Amino acid sequence: MSKELILKTVDELARLIEGKSISPVELTTEVLDHAEEMNEQINAYIQIAREEAEKFAKRAEEEILNGNYRGMYHGIPIGIKDNIYFKDQVSTMGSKIHQDYVSDYDATVVEKLRDAGAVLTGKLNMHEYAWGITNDNPHYGACRNPWDPEKIPGGSSGGSGAAVAADMSVASLGTDTAGSIRIPSSACGIVGLKPTHGRVSKYGCFPLAWSLDHIGPMTKSVKDAAGLLEVICGYDSNDPTSLHVPNENFTDFNGDVKDLVIGVNEEYFFHQVDSEVEKLVRANIQNLVDQGAKVEEVKIPALQYAEWAELVTSLSEASTIHHRNLLKRPDDFGSDIRLLFELGELPSAVDYLQAQQVRRQLKKDFAEAFEKVDVLISPTLPVIPSKIGEDFANLNGEKVDLIDHMIRFTGPGNLTGLPALSIPCGTKGNMPVGLQIMGPALKEKRILNAGYALEQTNPLQGRRPSLVVS
């Protein structure tokens, strides 16, 4: 029975918990046992908080038995990326410099999860300071992909992606500055949602780049992601970028895509793509067409400058945040991110402001595209993740730079702040492939509905990670 429980989605488990068929204590014990058993192989957790998790699971059980069921995430065990603060617990940011940092408050999203009755199981591995896509962490060890332990899980939220894929956490939160939710979600075969910028408060999350950062769900299903967004969204006066917009019932969708207009941008989002990845994504677009959707090609001219604008913005903002430590403690950074912080000292004010002008034009071009189409679909990643330690990817037989190609299709979502969802759309060999659905600002429900329609076609055909129990 226990192995069956940890394989289930939040949506499935919530019904069992609400109906008192299973208890949060039983579920939490099985998830923690499995996480401790698997962590030596996968290294998804930096710290498992067993004692606290068991205490909160017992409290959730008592509340539910007394008729005080709080909703979908009540009693659900969740691990959280280690740059999101827990009160009175260490948050390392995956770093040496902050290895002993203890916050005296919960991040807003953590506070909301506690209010929803979630059981927080610990802090998940990440690329140091969220500044990378491999999760090959020099201080806490490399996180491994459950589908192939020799390969990266993607990053920077690699621990979140691996933990959910390996059933070491029923769901998770990640952060996304250039794709750090969607990249590991694609690499690990799960669902990852980057909400509209400002939809979810970032208060209590250590920043990478202020104007690009997002927090969002990483889950086993689209419904789980929608339910988690309902929990964590909302205006927060502590976050100056927070949007004062009404909360929505994001789980209220049925997968009806009749008359949905799908935008496809060939010049950028289907340029230099692994041939098998492209084939899978186009087949899934056809699946939506078979359900009544339409396809229209769109032009987004400013995309040709997007990679440059993302790079200048993220480098400049990240290096500003870490400037003092770069001067005083340069050797305490991992070599890969130290180089990035040093590079971030080079762009001028002119460069940064020109990048913001590109960003403004990109937002305008996307807005014009969304006047013609409802969603934009592309591959999440143009390549399959590489082996741990490699700095290149294989693109149709050619070795290409790993980082540049892994963030090519996700970065525009951060520059524009538009919502973007990655869902599994099939496999290449033994590795999952992700498909990205972008939408207009604040239209998360629209992209979730399209994702749900694809999810119902069972694109993974029951295939599961090699390290996970069957």
Descriptive report:
By secondary structure, the protein is an alpha/beta fold. It has one domain: Amidase signature (AS) domain (Amidase signature (AS) enzymes, Alpha-Beta Complex), CATH 3.90.1300.10. It is built from 17 helices and 15 strands. α6 runs parallel beside α7 (182-188), α8 (222-232) runs antiparallel to α17 and α11 (306-321) crosses α13. The longest helix has 21 residues, at 349-369. The chain is globular, with a radius of gyration of 20 Å. The protein starts with a helix and ends in a 15-residue tail after the last helix.
For the structure shown, list the relevant keywords.
about 475 residues; alpha/beta; Amidase signature (AS) enzymes; eleven-stranded mixed beta sheet; two-stranded antiparallel sheet; 17 helices; 15 strands; about 15% strand
SS class: alpha/beta
Query: What is the general shape?
Result: globular
Distance between the termini: 13 Å
In percent, how helical is the residue content?
25-40%
Domain Amidase: 26-448
EC number: 6.3.5.6, 6.3.5.7
Protein name: Aspartyl-tRNA(Asn)/glutamyl-tRNA(Gln) amidotransferase subunit A
Family: Belongs to the amidase family.
